[in-house]
């Protein structure tokens, strides 16, 4: 079936630039020669023709390197990704865009680090993108109308501090880069539901690596039921307030949206890749009225520091200090010193570093008589 493309909603100048772009690609073998497809690359580069041309030619190299034309026919998914990668395609929104659900709170970052290789994760990201693209084209044919985009629903339930690992953050960075470089202007919206504080921390960390236009498409919803404003009830799973069930009668639609979970050790094939000497818990003992500082050097920005500690009672003050150079005597308080909390209090937080330099986790035993113990861990994200 031939799907009639809609008339382009662009200015005369933009149409002229589109014509120029097409002429510059005349000697290339294009996977899609439609105006709508070529327009996406121009829009991604604000109609700077030379920049769009550079981007498109890099994409053609990506297609050749990864054999995209036959990728879905030849891809063999590893068992661990088939069973434990959380998410999937399910239904359409009210504008007929394909909907993809992502469940980062059920993503076992360290488990995938042990059970897969970086190339397997890279190949799986391509698989997800190409499956979305195939579904978009199939939907266009089924509905006899042009559909060119998708939306993403991020269910951040169960997302916690344990997910803010260097491996996990790097995985999201690479995924975002792959989609933005090779599938531009395909994303219509991102709806985030069940969002805890720590998930907002992740979005803040990723912001410097995400195109401004992409970040502007992100909406935090107060309740999953708000999805009904964007997705028809019969296309929204029961678990999110709709009426859709999968072919097994499951309101979670697990036949389409995998729930992920902890990867069993029987699927591990790699030893855990250590993330540096700071990946182990530190035991700190403070005599009465003693102070202790853990200095962390940040050589590149943007970067973030995540920390976590337990203190054995409330006679511990905690703060965060900064100095530009190791030997500087003057220091600046970034988090003013305050009591760490009640007895056996577990404290966890993060800071996005705006400047290079040395950041200090500062602990002080305020007791005048007793020694105190702290268990602390930190990580650079």
Map the helices and strands:
Blueprint: H1 12-24, H2 35-44, H3 49-66, H4 71-74, H5 79-84, E1 87-92, E2 98-102, H6 109-115, H7 118-143, E3 150-155, H8 166-182, E4 187-193, H9 197-206, H10 212-215, E5 218-220, E6 282-286, E7 291-298, E8 303-311, E9 316-323, E10 332-339, E11 346-353, E12 357-365, E13 372-380
Parallel strand pairs: 2-3, 3-4, 4-5
Antiparallel strand pairs: 1-2, 6-13, 7-12, 8-11, 8-13, 9-10, 9-12
Helix pairs in contact: 1-2, 1-3, 2-3, 7-8
What does this structure look like?
This protein is α+β, with helices and mostly antiparallel strands and 381 residues long. Helix 1 (12-24) crosses helix 3 and helix 2 (35-44) crosses helix 3. It is 30% helix and 24% strand. The model is unreliable at 272-279 (pLDDT under 50). It is built from ten helices and 13 strands. The longest helix has 26 residues, at 118-143. It has helices at 12-24, 35-44, 49-66, 71-74, 79-84, 109-115, 118-143, 166-182, 197-206, 212-215, and strands spanning 87-92, 98-102, 150-155, 187-193, 218-220, 282-286, 291-298, 303-311, 316-323, 332-339, 346-353, 357-365, 372-380. A hairpin with an 8-residue loop joins strand 9 (316-323) and strand 10 (332-339). A five-stranded mixed β-sheet has the order 1-2-3-4-5, with helices on one face. It has a four-stranded antiparallel β-sheet with strand order 6-13-8-11, with helices on one face. Strands 7-12-9-10 form a four-stranded antiparallel β-sheet, with no helix packed on it.
Key attributes of the depicted protein:
13 strands; alpha+beta; five-stranded mixed sheet; single chain; 381 residues; 10 helices; 30% helix; four-stranded antiparallel sheet
């Amino acid at each position: 079936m031939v799907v009639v493309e809609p008339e382009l909603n662009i200015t005369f100048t933009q149409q002229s630039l589109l014509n120029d772009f097409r002429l510059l690609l005349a000697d290339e073998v294009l996977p899609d020669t439609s105006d709508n497809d070529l327009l996406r690359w121009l829009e991604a580069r604000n109609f700077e023709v030379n920049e769009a041309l550079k981007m498109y030619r890099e994409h053609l190299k990506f297609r050749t390197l990864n054999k995209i034309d036959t990728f879905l026919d030849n891809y063999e998914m590893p068992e661990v990704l088939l069973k434990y990668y959380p998410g999937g395609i399910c239904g359409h929104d009210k504008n007929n865009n394909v909907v993809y659900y992502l469940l980062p709170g059920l993503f076992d970052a360290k488990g995938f680090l042990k059970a897969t290789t970086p190339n397997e994760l890279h190949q799986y990201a391509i698989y997800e993108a190409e499956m979305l693209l195939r579904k978009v084209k199939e939907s266009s044919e089924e509905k006899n109308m042009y559909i060119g985009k998708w939306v993403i629903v991020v269910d951040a339930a169960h997302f916690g501090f344990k997910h803010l690992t260097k491996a996990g953050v790097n995985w999201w960075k690479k995924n975002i880069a792959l989609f933005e470089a090779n599938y531009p202007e395909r994303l219509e919206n991102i709806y985030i539901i069940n969002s805890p504080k720590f998930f907002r921390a992740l979005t803040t960390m990723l912001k410097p690596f995400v195109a401004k236009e992409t970040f502007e498409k992100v909406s935090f919803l107060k309740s999953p039921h708000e999805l009904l404003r964007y997705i028809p009830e019969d296309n929204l799973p029961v678990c999110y307030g709709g009426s859709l069930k999968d072919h097994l009668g499951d309101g979670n639609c697990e036949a389409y949206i995998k729930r992920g979970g902890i990867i069993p050790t029987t699927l591990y094939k790699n030893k855990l890749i250590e993330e540096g000497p700071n990946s182990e818990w530190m035991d700190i003992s403070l005599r009465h009225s003693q102070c202790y500082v853990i200095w962390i050097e940040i050589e590149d920005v943007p970067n973030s520091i995540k920390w976590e500690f337990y203190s054995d009672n409330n006679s511990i003050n905690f703060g965060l200090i900064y100095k530009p150079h190791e030997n500087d005597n003057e220091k600046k308080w970034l988090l003013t010193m305050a009591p760490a909390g009640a007895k056996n209090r577990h404290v966890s937080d993060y800071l996005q570093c705006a400047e290079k330099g040395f950041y200090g986790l500062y602990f002080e035993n305020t007791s005048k008589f007793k020694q105190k113990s702290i268990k602390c861990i930190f990580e650079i994200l």
